[in-house]
Amino acid sequence: MTTGKLGISMALLVALASCAQSPPRMAKEKNSAADPKAIHSSALIVDTHADTTQYFVEDFDITSGALAKGRHFDLDLARKGNLGAEFFSVWVDPKSPYARGRFALATFDQIDAVRRQVEKHPDRMVLATSPADIQRAHAAGKLAALMGIEGGHSIENSLPLLRNFYRLGVRYMTLTWSNTNDWADSSGDLDEKNVKHHNGLTAFGEDVVREMNWLGMMVDVSHVSDRTFYRALTISRAPVIASHSSARALTPHARNMTDDMLRAMARNGGVVMVNFYSAFIDEDYRKAANAHRAAADAAERDLALRMQGASRRDYYAAFHRLHQEYADRLPRPPLKSLIDHIDHVAKVAGVDHVGLGSDFDGITSLPQGIDSVADLPKITAALVERGYTREQIHKVLGGNLMRVFREVERMAGQIQMEKPEPAPGSAQ
Questions:
Q1: CA distance readout (Å), 283 to 13, 180, 335, 338, 383
Q2: Same domain, 323 and 237
Q3: pLDDT band at residue 428, thresholds of 50, 70 and 90?
Q4: Cβ(179)–Cβ(223) under 8 Å?
Q5: What's the CA gap between 402 and 131, in Å, rounded?
Q6: Which of 36, 40, 168, 331 is the most buried (most CB within 10 A)?
């Protein structure tokens, strides 16, 4: 997020690579009579990325009413979709005038907002920081609420800050967002000549990955450049995740992962959580969105000028309306586009290395039929139609992420025995 765990033999690596390249075995005859509703209702479903957190800061209550506000996630909808666990994204816009120079403080604000939602609704959700917590919440019929930081700029080049975020409940960090930070290159600005790039990770960036392994925090390689990706996998002793990425072979967006990257994820033991955003899963939509991009970016710059001095709430409300208006001009791709990406990752990396990372409430367009978290059963039905077995679907819906999460915890315990003290300080 070591192209393999320490101590793995070359023979086992070859076997793993061979399995990763084989399509998932599908017992089609047996599966033809499978009941999608029964498969879905019996699954522990984990989604690794929802941006609903930004609305918590604005006092949005998570219990209900999301659809009426054009959003994708609330507790009523999550129950209809049988969602068991959600990683709420803690994302600080690096360009925002409300966060400039105070990334860590803005990150703390969002962590507090997630925790306050849990405190307000203890009968329906619990704060989870481990796979065991997720299992307990599921057994109690409650949503397990977890947190992941989206963008390494949030730690402000400080390992002590990283550790404090972990203590407050953060269980993964995306090494970059769309912006290159002081220690890791992003896929989002590689063509920008005014941005200082690092050829992947700096020495401090490598220390960040090691410290995340020490803590038991999952390393997330969504958003990062290809060089950052490969270096992170070389450094990490634990499996990594891509919390919300799709397949570049189907949709050639820099945010997506090449087939070689998918196979590297399999060798690492990690999991690719497929993003639902239309521009990441459908080439026709991506091209159409690119045609609107210059106009949308110009409108965003104009908005920032016009709303100087406006409250954070009013600015972001206008910001989201603006981008939604541009997205609404484009036809949504079919659900097949999303299923194609899940299927492609399963066939290239192996069915043990794919999951769901929706990006709910952080994107302006979803495929047809997916209007909110309540529509997750449609994904299960589509996978049944393609011949996936109950066991395979349960892996995709959450089992693979749970396996990685447990291994990250196990490896942290091993590393802490080898090196009891955390690393010192910050980047110089």
A1: 33, 25, 13, 11, 21
A2: no
A3: low
A4: no
A5: 6
A6: 40
